[in-house]
Amino acid sequence: MKLVTLAGPPSSGKTSVVLRVAEGLADAGLRVGVIKFDCLSSDDQQRYEKAGIPVKTGLAGGLCPDHFFVANIEQGVQWGRRSGFDLLMVESAGLCNRCSPHIREVLAVCVIDNLSGVHTPRKIGPMLKTADVVVITKGDIVSQAEREVFAFRVRQVNPRAAVLPVNGLTGQGALLLHKHLQGAAETDSLEQVRLRFSMPAALCSYCLGETRIGRDCQIGNVKTMDFS
Fold first, then answer.
1. pLDDT band at 44, cuts 50/70/90?
2. How many CA atoms lie within 13 A of 214 on its CB side?
3. Would the pTM count as exceeding 0.85?
4. Which of 7, 80, 121, 213 has the greatest CB tally within 10 Å of its CB?
5. DSSP letters of 169-197?
């Protein structure tokens, strides 16, 4: 089974892109499944089910969504194998821009939209910087000049990635993405496979449920600013 991770900021159009790509792959005779990782809630399960795509949704709740992703991805791969998928797409929302769910030896796609601003590619971090393919959405509602500047900024951050404009509503551009996904490596298990980027070291009193503010309430890994 081929495995692909797709990650991007909230509302960048990840689900629309996955749906468009899945339609084309299904037309080519491939059986496609999706795992959706999110934080507190998601309506995307209904969108996938309506499109006839088998889907599992995991909500991190009070946990870091990327840590939750890593704790569950191997079981997700085994679900995909048992289901007989040819391709399993794993959609994950990146929220803090410090983490990256991308995995070594697994095709990594970052979805980012033109409306997020020309400085956004520099702020997204490893989720974009370590991707193999960067999909840029919402190009139909900005000017040609804005599209070119945005794509240039993406290439500055990740010059080795394939940069593809895709319209999640019409599917324009999805064919090129199909080809990248069909070239993804076969994956039977992720046991002992490494992430492409280490997650932030964050073990402080607030990670453990503390809600009070104050120096005396802070223990563990704490970083403070210099306001002198």
1. confident
2. 5
3. yes
4. 7
5. TT-TTHHHHHHHHHTPPB-S--TTPPBSS
